[in-house]
Amino acid sequence: MSREIVRVLSSGVLASPSGAGERPLVLVAVSGGADSLALTAAAAHAAPVLDVRIAAVVIDHRLQPDSDAVAERAAAIVRGLGVDASVAAVSVGDAGGPEAAARVARYVALDDAARRTGASAVLLGHTLDDQAETVLLGLARGSGGGSLKGMAEVTGRLVRPFLSIRRDETRAAVDELGLSAWDDPHNADASFARARVRHRVLPVLEAELGPGIAEALARTAEQAREDADAFDEMIEEFIEDICEPAEAGLSVDVGPLAANPAAIRHRIIRLVARGEFGSSLTRAHTLAIAALVTDWRGQGPIDVPGIRVSRNGGRLVFTATGALARECEPLRRKRPWL
Fold first, then answer.
1. Which domain holds residue 296?
2. Rg (CA), the chain
3. Is position 164 annotated in a ligand binding site?
4. Pfam family of this protein, just one (predicted)?
5. How would you write the pLDDT of the chain (338 residues) with one tens digit per residue?
6. pTM of this prediction exceeds 0.90
7. Are residues 168 and 244 in the same domain?
8. 31 among the known binding-site residues?
9. Whose CA is closest to 56, among 9, 114, 1?
10. 34 labeled part of a ligand binding site
């Protein structure tokens, strides 16, 4: 597992630290589960090879009564591996549902920790199984080919070195190390879509279609990401002339959107939503927004999770709403078109 960390971080991900003579700092996001504990142990093993410093940030979502005790216990286990650990308690909002809100709060905390410490990278413990679940959830939402991309191995400072590793491998690793991993009860709670995919949908697919479904979904994600990234790069070059900053968001020139094929128009809409607000639109959301371009009859704004889109003359204006307006700013990547 440490080989995967060395491979990814040796590919130009690490930035030089600002302090003279300092080694780069790599943070590990820890929940206390098997995946993050295996990741921390592997990172500690890889640190001398990479000549980096390793520290951990244990995220306490405060969603359960004993969450603080669970976080402190995880921090103690991490320190037992020789890795410095701190606990970050977050406040989870309600934008986009509980799972999305927890993810936003977690990433905000990790971004804050990285900026505060000057970390070059933040390691996340997502596995091949998580990737397969993400692809299935995206397909269920009807978000088109973009849903097949799954999670990227590298997104800015965020690094997911375990996307080729199965969850049972991380469990076996912590067992071998004698570490006591925490099992988040939410992961078995059928009220959460990801838990249903994990414990019901994927097992049925394996039983009915044969083994290897998770691996096949992960391979599909990798191939789809290659295609989508190339297309997005071309789209970004195109839209640099049609986007302008707007209060709490940005606006897009309607003319070029209307003049181009639906595939390009829809991709621009999805790219703006994802890149500016960290929001993944469903097909229905995308078509509703596109109707403000192609079927404009003076209708009012379209509200999608975390975003309001309105037509203002010849501009399509995207504005953050609700909790997302306060929380998503650290998640916004640099806009190459502005």
1. 240-331
2. 21
3. no
4. ATP_bind_3
5. 899 999 999 887 776 555 556 889 999 999 999 999 999 999 999 999 999 999 999 999 888 888 999 999 999 999 999 999 999 988 888 776 778 888 889 999 999 999 999 999 999 999 999 999 999 988 887 656 666 889 999 999 999 999 999 999 999 999 999 999 999 888 888 988 899 999 999 999 999 998 999 999 999 999 988 888 888 788 877 888 898 888 778 999 999 999 999 989 998 998 899 888 888 888 889 999 999 999 999 999 999 988 999 999 999 999 998 755 544 454 444 454 44
6. no
7. no
8. yes
9. 114
10. yes
User: Does residue 205 fall inside a structural domain?
Assistant: no
CA nearest to 96, candidates 281, 221, 237: 281
**CATH number of the CATH domain containing 272:** 3.30.465.60
284 and 186 within one domain? no
CATH of the domain at 120: 3.40.50.620
Q: Which of 311, 321, 320, 275 is nearest to 290 (CA)?
A: 311
The response to whether 12 counts as a known ligand-binding position is no
Same domain assignment for residues 282 and 170: no
Taking the C-alpha atoms of residue 320 and residue 307, their distance in angstroms, rounded to an integer, is: 5
